[in-house]
Amino acid sequence: MAHPQPKHDGQGVQEEEEEYHPWYLHPEFSHPFKLARKITLGRPDAAAFRNLAIFPWDSETLQKLWDGTQYTPEIEKGWKQLVAQYWDAVAVTSDYSLHIFFTQQKKNPLSVRLPEDEQKLLETDTMCVAWAINLDKPLEPLVLFSRGSVLYSYNPERLGINGFMRGHGAAITSIAVHPTVPQLVCTTSRDYTTRIYDLRFEADILVEGNTLRARDKKVDNPVWPPVLKPSLAGAAHGLRLPVSEQEGRGMGRCIGVLMGGRSGGHQAAVLSAAFHPTLPLIATCGDYQESSSFKIISTHAFPKVPSQLIAPRLNLFQHPYQDPLILLAYPKGTSLTIVNPRFMKPRQPYPFPSSIKEKLLGGANHPPPPASPPESEYGADMGFGAGIPPDDVNSPFALPQTQAGAGLSKGKERARREEEEEGEDDEDDGGYNIMRLSGPDEELDHNDDESQDDDDEATVKDGEDEDTEKGEEDDDDDEDEEGFQEITDFINRRPNIEVPPIQVGWSIGLEQGTGQRDEGQRMMACAMGVGGRIIVGVGTKGTVWVWRNDS
């Protein structure tokens, strides 16, 4: 897996250096992960862990956050101490509790439990969790987690909840944090909306008391066409709560909302979102009754001191899918989506495979405009619609099973290779460093005799063409045949599913060193972190599994 490469020293002497080849580039080899630790709460009736988030930063991340503005000697020293303290931390949630475990260090876990409430949630609704940082306090990491429609902020340094945010009209389905501006947080919900928060500002806005005068005060909501005045809608539509109510307490204020329904957004629950690391873009995806759409919306208009909600309405492009989308990510110039099979009617079930699709963004390498242009011109300025189509699927492949969740991780080796490739002009790669996958053959020849005979025998459509070529022999029978044909199409109708090739992967089970699995144990979620060296899984009976790559 290593090949010697010549290396020149300062005196012109050539030395041989072994080139590193990541293990995942060789599907024929087994994975190097071994079960290193198993953590349990020690109670037989412990609730199942259903979501997790690994500490996402390392000692070199500070140079990339906030465009390097916080990279000072004083903050750098404190940042390294912070990373040394939390580098192996993983935040885990159950139905009402948040736990922070340390997978490698011998430290006691941090825990906080919410009081039980009467919210009516679906079985698939979990307490979402993510790590964030406030720009004003860069050395105090925050753990954001949700319960139903409420978003909470936990400070592990101060050992307490320092804020909560309301506003969604239904359960929160995901939490996304900006990769380079980690005080910007996005939450998606089943109320068809997406809300964007800024942790620098207080959640509650000072208004007058609950009086008639306060109710007549101007509502800080965006204009909702066709009305030309600020909307009076509330949380059920994803907008600002009335001035007589409280939107939250502590740090974290809603600065923008991506509305759904008649406002041009999602027509059903929004399941995931992702910020672009450098461009003012945000992608959202969700679950539709007929199809799922991929949307990218401009967020360049957010004010620095928001007192009024901003509601971007421009969809730079959207892409239809047959199934719900459960994950979005931006791996350098591309958009990665994971499609989950939708639930079919039990009377006529037919399989829909899970799949992953990598999509090229036509204007991903095009710099954003210097000023804030009108939203009607923003799509053209970003380069979408020119060059590579925004819905160009580069590397689709299927997954071997239904995916309840998914994650994306990038190791240090891949990050190093991306930095080396910056500035290189490679038309085939498109400026990104994702391992190219073998996609379906798009130039298959369907004109040979064998395939043509098979099509004639198998498809109903060819029979319709033959009847059409016979001409109109009997006008009286045409109506009967057309009516019969419509019924036949309805009964024998089955979707033409283009299944992409199965991607080669590696399975990591819950077996112990003896090769036996604990009875009743089931993994509910997993994630990869620490530069791709650790895999953490959580599941039933309050259990955390830690796999480590020591190679």
UniProtKB/TrEMBL annotation:
TM regions (residue ranges): none
Repeat found in the keyword field: yes
Pfam families in the record: WD40
Region (Disordered): 343-482
Keyword Transcription: yes
Record Gene3D superfamilies: YVTN repeat-like/Quinoprotein amine dehydrogenase
Compositionally biased spans, kind Acidic residues: 419-430, 440-482
InterPro entries: PcG_WD-repeat, WD40/YVTN_repeat-like_dom_sf, WD40_repeat_dom_sf, WD40_rpt
Entry's family note: Belongs to the WD repeat ESC family.
Protein name: WD40 repeat-like protein
